[in-house]
Amino acid sequence: MLDELGVPLRFSHGGSAFHSRNFRPPRYFLGKKRALFLHRDPIDTTISGYFQVTKREAWRNLFNGSVSEFIRDDKLGIVRTLRFNSMWLDAASNNEAVLVTTYESLHSDPMSELRKIANWFGVSVSNEQLEKAVVAGRFDTMKAQEATGGYEESYHHRLRPANPDDPDSFKVRKGVVGGYREYLTEDDIAFCKERILQNRA
Q1: 127 assigned to some structural domain
Q2: Count of domains in the chain?
């Protein structure tokens, strides 16, 4: 959606790599330019990571267990997600050049959130441009584009299914807020929420 609006950004996972326990500190990425940090429910993020590792990057053989085992893995699971989020949220709280937005707010009110982000980067956008960007960012639109190779020229492997016959190998997989409930047991969810509370303490 931001590309559609002409917001000049370089997209990054902030130095995080699934095969590493370590993160590059935010100062590595934060210079004199403005930055945007996209925060998402850490449980949803961790489930997305599970499919990234087991479907999209299966060739790396980073993890072969169940989703329940994945969330409990210190190297790849919920603790890792929380550690990464805390690092960036701490950096943002002390840096006026960092804007924080959330995946959930982009779902609930995409027009307002996109306008705020565009304005933050000095890009003026019209309602018509915002409406077009929201349509481009709809799940069904993006799913179809990924399936037919519509993103190949711009995004290459980053928005290419690992296996076109496996919906879980798509980068645009479900796009649901709270979708983790489809994959986790009550015990799994309780485990994640306990870790979230511990992280806030």
Answers
A1: yes
A2: 1
